Amino acid sequence: MSDKKKAKKADEVEKVRREVEADRLVEAALKAVSMRREGASWGDIADSLGRSIVEVQELAKVAYARLGEQTVDALRAESEDKIDAVIRQAHFDLGTSCKTQSERTALYRVLLAAEAQRARLFGLNMRPDDEGGHDDGAQ
Questions:
Q1: What pLDDT is recorded for position 139?
Q2: What's the half-sphere exposure (Cβ side, CA atoms, 13 Å) at 36?
Q3: What average pLDDT score do residues 90-117 get?
Q4: Of 8, 64, 81, 94, whose CB is crowded by the most CB atoms within 10 A?
């Protein structure tokens, strides 16, 4: 193989290596944001990803910037998924692990708050005085 062909092949290998590394960084950034949203500390995220705290914070900044470019509909869908997950888990816990009335009451509050949040997400949080365009109580 000629030196020219070897150099070209080496350039191609390097290009692929950089693309793979970029993909890994994107995955790490998204994982960092996901873990942070779930309440993990920067230290826990760094340990999980095998990176320093500063690196994961920088990766998360990039991911947050990219997420900020998402459309409103995409963000709304993501929020709805999170609310749905809370509602599913609360219903599961209500049926399986609530032993006392106070535990059930706490979960009812979580469910009502999640449903209220979902209503606000879809613009369904009209007050009674907003209905029909008047607030004199006549209907």
A1: 42
A2: 19
A3: 89
A4: 94
